[in-house]
Amino acid sequence: MKRYILPVFFTAMATAVLTVTLLVGAGAYAVGSCFIDLALKRGSGGDPMAPPVVFKSAIEGSGRKIESARRPEYPAEEWRLRSFDGLVLQGTHFQPAEESHRWVVLVHGYGLEQDYTWQFADRYLKHGYQVLTPDMRASGKSEGKYLTMGALESRDIENWVKEIKKRDPAAKILLHGVSMGAATVMLASARQPDGVVAAIEDSGYSDLYDLFGTELERLVGVSLRPILELSDFICRQRAGFSFAEASPIEAVGNIHLPILFIHSDVDKLVAYDMMEDLYAVCPATGKEQYTVHGFPHGVAYQDKNYFSTVFAFADRWTAS
After folding, report:
1. What is the dihedral of CA 186, 114, 166, 89, to 10 degrees?
2. 3-state secondary structure at position 267
3. pTM of the prediction?
């Protein structure tokens, strides 16, 4: 009988270890899956068109108050575009008082939609720019189930640029994005779309893994970074992109067109040193940086010198 005791014992132990491992694995998968849906899946509070559940918490944590802007009082037309993967995307083209070949594409941030860029649009229109304000995929009137933090949105921006060039072959196009929109702009700029002459990234993150890790820790009170590895796998399966694909630090080394980096020194959502890292890696000879002081995430435009800095940069590269 004794010779059977050890095999039975080790079999029982192996079964117990395997069971615990499976339970832990299942729990980790459930947490990772839940995080991806809460952070990226469109719809909350019973409204399928609402931003992801995490949006409100992220904004409150940043200290920012979200206020949409009034629609610019300029002639406008609605544009539609079909994305590379079949989504119908929508945007608005605003026409300045005088004909111009200077264009800007304004790219909104996480959980928002195009009307949150209209305070920028109004300033650009007064300055003589043609303005396009798209709703990113899974935002506003555009189709889509998951936000992709710039990974697939950047490909959509490239298609919007192609649409502008088709309508105005002489267009000189500036890309200007805030937060997730800034990440989108950087990822698109790294592929150097024809017609884009310069870019402005405002409050963009460098590494999505680090951003999600920090936000997840803030939400639950403890570090769950090991869960992010599994979340990345789930994200690829469910939303169609990896964290690395949405991390501009992986792409900014390929940006050679002029780019202006803007960030607040007290940003609680996207750390200031992320901008410093991006600026250091970018090889563009026409790169510049501007630091605003004392403003929450995403509202650097309230700085009194914001638009004078923006237009001093933009006009240099879009001039005829």
Report:
1. 100
2. coil
3. 0.88
